[in-house]
Amino acid sequence: MKRALITGGLGFVGTHLVDRLLSEGSQVTIVDSLISNVMQPADYEASCRVIVGAIEDVARDLFPPSHHFDEIYHLASVVGPAGVLKHSGEIARQVVTSGEAVVELALAHKARLIEVSTSEVYGRAGTFRETDSCIIPGRFTVRLEYAVAKLTSEIAAINRARVTDLHVNIVRPFNIAGPRQLPGGGFVLPRFVIAALTGAPLTVFGTGQQVRAFTDVRDIVTGVTSVMRSPHRSRVFNLGNPANELSIMDLAHRVREVVGSRSPIINVDPKTLFGPLYEEGFDKVPEDTRAREDLSWKPRYTLEDTIRDTMNWYSERPHMLTCTDEQEQEVLVGALAETPA
After folding, report:
1. In whole angstroms, how far apart are CA 341 and each of 207, 259, 262, 265, 338?
2. What are phi and psi of 73, to 5 degrees?
3. Which three-class secondary structure state does DSSP give residue 113?
């Protein structure tokens, strides 16, 4: 029986990973600070050990001999294009110190470590393979702080592995979506699905020509566990579904079609919703040859599958069918007033 530690285990990706490992018979310990959680500790306390706190704060209590781990999955992080904004100036410290904590734990336990990073590290628009350069733009933004912190954590872990017995691999996911994703961090798919289900406008940021390649969270979990169980060490893996490449405006129309909704689609300035610190991400598409060839990993879920399953998840939870606050409602009213009939 594998003994796994999952940081951020109550988050969107984390809960799917916890469910997968439990179904395989693993013994799971969750550490979560409840900054970006989608589930509550009570939802997993019957099947896992759940520790509430930041990994960098509780790591000292998780060393041998009181605990034993074979696998450590480091997912804990602030998330979302809007969710990161309130942590401006603190993201770098949190990402780097949490990364240091899990490296020390992995060494102490002789455990395999997966650090889940981000495709933001590439720093520009394009289609990327793992060997492509990571660029640091000259304009400092909150998104850049997040990206540079993740890249620093990647570099530190792989460099540590060069001088120790650390067994670590890095995963760079692209635009994860699916059931349980919440709209609060600015994530587009749950925002669109909730709007389509309730007849509210689908709010497209800017022109809507931004390009994304959405990857189902369940495919991401399969990829992450495949990396963990592979013989590779100190490798970086893109996990994404280039077959799902499309613009945000096209996604809005696709969501309306799948849901069967007549909700209007309107363009809004995201800075009116989230403030002046908000920045759109670069147009990023994964080149996934390494994951396909080295891991035999292949995405199973189509974009329609992901939209439909997200729709069904929200339909079963009508109390969650809201994503607007008072400020957003004012923006929507103004945008609708300017939209031609």
Report:
1. 19, 23, 14, 12, 9
2. -110, 115
3. strand
Give the domains, in start order, of the chain with CATH numbers: 3-175+217-242 (3.40.50.720), 183-212+243-283+301-336 (3.90.25.10)
Are the C-beta atoms of residues 220 and 172 closer than 8 Å to each other? no
Tally of CB atoms within 10 A around 238: 26
The answer to whether the beta carbons of residues 114 and 171 sit under 8 Å apart is: yes
Cβ burial, residue 292 (10 Å; 0-12/13-18/19+)? exposed
Give this prediction's pTM: 0.94
Q: Give the Cα separation of 193 and 332 in Å (integer).
A: 16
**Please, what are the averages of pLDDT over each run of 10 residues along the chain (341 residues)?**
97 98 98 96 98 97 95 95 94 97 98 98 97 95 97 98 98 98 94 97 97 98 98 98 98 98 97 94 96 97 98 96 56 48 43
Task: Provide the token pair at 135.
Answer: 């660029």
Q: Collect all residues with Cβ–Cβ distance below 8 Å to 88 and sequence separation of at least 6.
A: 142, 145, 277
- Among left, alpha and beta (phi > 0; psi -120 to 50; other), residue 240 is beta
- Token pair in block for residue 143: 């998104």
Max CA distance (Å), the chain: 68
DSSP reduced 3-state for 30 = strand
Contacts of 273 (CB under 8 A, 6+ apart): 82, 203, 327, 328, 331
